[in-house]
Amino acid sequence: MTITDHTIPLAVRDHGGDGPPLLLLHGLGGTLDAWQEVAPALTAAYRVVAMDLRGHGLSGEAPWEWDAVLDDVEAVVDRLGLGAAVIVGHSLGGMLASLWAARHPECPAVVNLDGLRSAENDPANYPGMDPALVTRELAQLKAMFDAQEAAMARPLPPEQVAALPPRAVTTSGDDSYLRPGPELLAAIRYAPHFRDAVPALRAVRCPTLVVLPTQDPPGMPPSELMAALRRGVRRDLAPIAAAHPHIQVVELAASHNMVQEKPGDVARLISDFVQDTSR
Prior knowledge:
- One of its GO terms (cellular component) is membrane.
- The protein has nine helices and ten strands.
- The protein has 279 residues and is α/β, with parallel strands linked by helices.
- An eight-stranded mixed sheet has the order 1-2-4-3-5-6-9-10, sandwiched between helices. A two-stranded antiparallel ribbon has the order 7-8.
């Protein structure tokens, strides 16, 4: 379904289910299809809804402004009558989940699936690694992401369009392009909250589960960089979790792509945590 009485159209999939509401938020470059294997495992105990974020999937185009995106989430919650929903987010969606909980103290719980820090980051956030090597590998990572961003601005060949899910593509005239577009991608990529969402957890007062990966994403060149990034996240997350007992941190034997790699484990972590918080 599509919500049309908002500032932009918002595409939503209501998976149904009985019980407290859960709203699922995908990561950068994803769509609500990311939850296709997770959502059915949750509907026995929860009403499960997923949405396409602005500029993604079948939702409308609009500048990326964090408060406006939270307004989008609010529109979905209001129009579908979700009330005080548990917010579950992966990557960018996890960052939004933390901001949502800070805005809504009544939020019953948040699950943040590796939505704490982007791979491109300040050199100090890669502890235990030679600084010169960090500088070199960050330059290589930037070049890779720059190339991906540039590719978003180029029309797709017809055979690639045919191979992609419809939600991943937008059409302009006779040409088709990947979503999100390069402008939105750049706006998110360099946003301070996207680069480092760890400090935002200090403002969250509801029960929060943070799930950290233990493995590098597939396709990454051999490097110490991602392991060092994970060390930095653990380093900076530990004192926040110690000072805020409502924040629980667990690690999952998966990469950042945990929703696709371990959907059953992700669903169990979500369900067990929400059940524990409701007791």
